[in-house]
Write a structure and sequence with these properties.
This protein has 3 domains: 88 residues, Fumarase/aspartase (N-terminal domain) (Fumarase C, Chain B, domain 1, Orthogonal Bundle); 251 residues, Fumarase/aspartase (Central domain) (Fumarase C, Chain A, domain 2); 71 residues, Fumarase/aspartase (C-terminal domain) (Ribonucleotide Reductase Protein R1, domain 1, Orthogonal Bundle). It has 19 helices and 6 strands. Strand 3, helix 8 and strand 4 form a beta-alpha-beta unit. It starts with 9 loop residues before the first helix and ends with a helix.
Length: 463
């Protein structure tokens, strides 16, 4: 650095150096450098022979970095400088031509955009695999009654298949969020330079096509300073991790002795260091615990970008560790969820017993009264009184006598006892999106179509 006479203070160097984490950009940086070199050929900066040497040299760098035991040197400030150094060792002074027409500002933005594209697609792929597991489970358990809950209190009965599909649709929305992140990252910053553009009329759209970008940035200042695509990925990852945490939490509850609704496969469970009888749902617990970590990664980057003046500040170096951490965490969790669901077993008898509580039919009785002309609020109060009567007398609702029913309402007759037959509670929910069998069949068909669209999108992006 000719501007400076002093070497960096070792304390500043440790603070400033990013190679410990941005080494993960290496394959993207090499791909980008090869495409940039082809752009330099078109504007006369490189000859055909020089391009061939640079391209071959970059492949040597790629291979060298993949060697077991490869280590960076202390002078490698970041991945860009490391690649440049290694290229110089491979082809000599010609490597010094490659930085023409770009800055580390647009270079790193492009690398990170490529990372977001690749891992958004990977998240879509993994989410699709988990959706497939959920759909398969839902189809196999489509007619298994279970209690649905609000406030973790038994509320209304549903079919287990219907309940499992709720998570399918959560992940379907996550796919849309990751797709948005992928699209957001498909705008190439390269060519923005440090902030004002570059002095070489490189065909940015040709370079973008070469690298798989859909568009090029319209404004060089925005191109160099934009990290919205990182935030879009982290937002999608945060929502996805939150959804997995809800699934994990329910599995923890359901697999407890108190519920006994399901049991995880041994390969996704652990024992106790002191209690031999224990089989702990650690995989589900970790799904629950990982979610705040990913949300913190999102908070870290949006906090770093908050009020940051245009265009580039060294603050933006802090986008990578949270991004890489979120990528690793959400991909691991999605993959583990698919494996965990593959071996889960449900207990039909426990589910049916829990769903047979007559109190779950309270809303059905209220609707019976409404059909006889009683306003719903009045019906709600009548049924609440019946529930209180049954609890105080130590009896079930069906054990209340016709005389006791008439004490609450003249509209309560033999139809009351018909409503308490369990199958009617479930099949009365025939509305689109409800738990009734016909509606559930339609929902399964829609889920298959949705999953097919996800698979097609992955294949399209991979091709």
């Amino acid at each position: 650095m000719s501007r400076f006479r002093k070497d960096p203070d070792p304390r500043f160097w440790r603070l400033n150096r990013s190679i410990e984490f941005d080494w993960r950009l290496a394959p993207y940086d090499i791909d980008q450098s090869q495409a940039h070199a082809r752009g330099l050929l078109e504007v006369g900066v490189l000859s055909e022979e020089e391009l061939e040497r640079i391209d071959a040299g970059l492949e040597q760098v790629r291979a060298r970095m993949a060697e077991p035991g490869f280590e960076f040197v202390d002078a490698d400030e970041d991945i860009h400088m490391a690649v440049e150094r290694l290229l110089g060792e491979a082809i000599g002074p010609l490597a010094g031509k490659l930085p023409t027409g770009r800055s580390r500002n647009d270079q790193v933005a492009t690398d990170v955009a490529m990372v977001v594209q690749a891992h958004s697609l990977r998240a879509i792929e993994l989410a699709g695999a988990t959706m497939e597991r959920l759909l398969g489970l839902a189809e196999r358990h489509r007619d298994w009654p279970m209690p649905g809950y609000t406030h973790l209190q038994r509320a209304q009965p549903v079919y287990l298949g219907h309940h499992l599909l709720a998570y399918f649709w959560m992940l379907a929305r996550d796919v849309l969020r990751f797709q948005f992140a992928l699209d957001s990252a498909s705008v190439m910053p390269l060519g923005s330079g440090a902030l004002a553009g570059v002095n070489w009329e490189i065909d940015r759209r040709a370079v973008a096509d070469d690298l798989g970008f859909e568009h090029v940035s319209a404004n060089s200042i925005d191109g160099a300073s934009n990290r919205d695509f990182v935030l879009d990925y982290l937002a999608a990852a945060s929502a996805c991790s939150m959804h997995l945490s809800r699934l994990g939490s329910e599995i923890v509850l359901w697999s407890s002795s108190e519920f006994g609704f399901c049991e995880l496969d041994e390969s996704f469970s652990s024992g106790s260091s002191i209690m031999p009888q224990k089989k702990n749902p650690d995989s589900a617990e970790l799904l629950r615990a990982k979610s705040p970590r990913v949300a913190a990664d999102y908070a870290a980057v949006i906090g770093m970008m908050h009020a940051l003046p245009l265009t580039y500040g060294k603050d933006m170096q802090e986008d990578k560790e949270p991004l890489f951490d979120a990528i690793d965490t959400v991909e691991l969790c999605l993959d583990a969820t698919g494996g965990m669901l593959a071996g889960i077993e449900f207990d039909r008898e426990r589910l049916e017993a829990a769903s047979g509580d007559e109190m779950l039919a309270a809303t059905e009785i209220a609707d019976l009264l409404v059909r006889k002309g009683v306003p719903f609020r009045e019906a709600h109060g009548i049924v609440g009184g019946l529930v209180r009567d049954a609890i105080e007398r130590g009896r079930s609702l069906s054990e209340l006598t016709p005389e006791e029913l008439r004490e609450r309402s003249e509209h309560l007759d033999e139809a009351f006892y018909e409503v308490l037959r369990r199958e009617s509670w479930l099949e009365s929910k025939r509305i689109e999106g409800g738990t009734g069998s016909e509606a559930l069949t339609d929902q399964v068909e829609l889920a298959h179509a949705t999953l097919a669209a996800v698979r097609a999108r992955v294949l399209e992006e991979r091709s």
